[in-house]
Amino acid sequence: MTDTEKLVHREWSAAESTRRITITNPADGQELFAAPVASPAEVDTAVGAARSAAAEWARTAAAERAAAVHRAADAVAARADDLARLTTLEMGKPLGDARGGVDAGVGTLRQYAELGPVHRGRSLNGGFGATDLMVYEPRGVVAAITPWNDPVAVSCGLIGAALVTGNTVVYKPSERTPATGWLLARILSEHLPAGVLNLLLGDGAVGARLVEQPVDVVAHVGACATGRAIARAAAGTRTKVLLENGGNDPLIIDADVDPEWAAAQAALGAFANAGQICVSVERIYVHEAIADPFLAALAARAEALRMGPGLEAGTELAPLVDRRLREHVHGHVEQAVAGGAKLLAGGDVPEGPGAYYPATVLAGCTDDMAVMREETFGPVAPVAVVGTFDEALARAGQGEYGLAATVLTRDLAHAIRASRELPAGTVKVNNVFGGAPGGAAHPRRASGQGYGYGPELLDEMTQTKVVHLGAPPA
């Protein structure tokens, strides 16, 4: 892999800027490569290339666009092992999990390739001699700014939805996973006309410059601070903004569930991908009737996880993406312990290279602790014991975020109440992860705005026009 190529107008050429970002392997701290940082002029050129190609791509038949995305999906599938390995090298996750993310991205591309040609339109009833049509048209140029924690799956979703609806794309992957984004763009671009997909590598300054350009949609999955900055920048340009940002997702555990099963669900939600999932379990409210056996089972599961490099067979808990995130995670844990929380498992920074952090369980947490109020984004399960389901529901609904929430219960009335009352875009009952293929996600409050997945994302990528067709005079 080269560290000096950029993609604009389907041409790969040397980056103009001499500035580089050094990427290190979070498993051992060794330098992997240096990624170029796009210059302001390169950002402008990429947006210009996407704009120049927009009209022709919009006029391309929907079936032809879909066929191109199908071919691109096949090409991504053929390079799945390479993409998964790069993901693991850059951000650390176990290789099997990384491969699962690539497979999800392939599935999403194929899903949108099927949905694109049948994207909705409708007719309106009017006079007998006339017809009104509501048609959906591409918005133009989409800036897709994607995260590092699941780089292929998220990127394929945003790029695929944009392409099949007739938009062109300027794609900026996270500066923490530039090689994965670089390879994905190279694979996709081979099956698209010039200018339809353009790649920019770089840091937050590159993303800020991109958002300031005359694009029509900014689709961002990532940190809340970045999302707020994008929303402020777009307010003056009337650019359509789609945001899926941070969460502080609660898990409610009712009195009537098996504590061992609940512990398995909590461990999966809090420790999968080392807690680096947008919808990870970030705080737990367990009923006092089962609190003791639940906490014992959760701590045992945390201590049993095998920690190691993502490329090593059998690894269950890989390193965090870097030491900067580890410092943030450990800071939350230290503050909780200082505030009276009891450490039942983990909580220490391992010696040696890499960015490892153990699965950590905290008991006796209170809602004023950062680990309960903010997004920790690490393998930490903070637990608060509650006396009633009403208390759990009230406390779980607090805070500024509204991404997702989960409730474990055998009581149908409690499940229905939770689904109605929890102020989150997604509420899951008796399963911390999962959901039907093609499911939508619509974050609330500080967690974002707009649909980020499912057929509804095609609506976000388009704009409607009502056409009135009247008959000419006889």
UniProtKB/TrEMBL annotation:
Keyword Cytoplasm found: no
Ranges of residues in domain Aldehyde dehydrogenase: 12-467
Keywords recorded for this protein, A-Z: Oxidoreductase
GO terms, molecular function: oxidoreductase activity, acting on the aldehyde or oxo group of donors, NAD or NADP as acceptor
Domain of life where this protein originates: Bacteria
InterPro entries, per database record: Ald_DH/histidinol_DH, Ald_DH_C, Ald_DH_N, Aldehyde_DH_dom
Pfam family, one: Aldedh
Name the record gives this protein: Succinate-semialdehyde dehydrogenase
Organism: Planosporangium flavigriseum
Organism placement in taxonomy: Bacteria, Bacillati, Actinomycetota, Actinomycetes, Micromonosporales
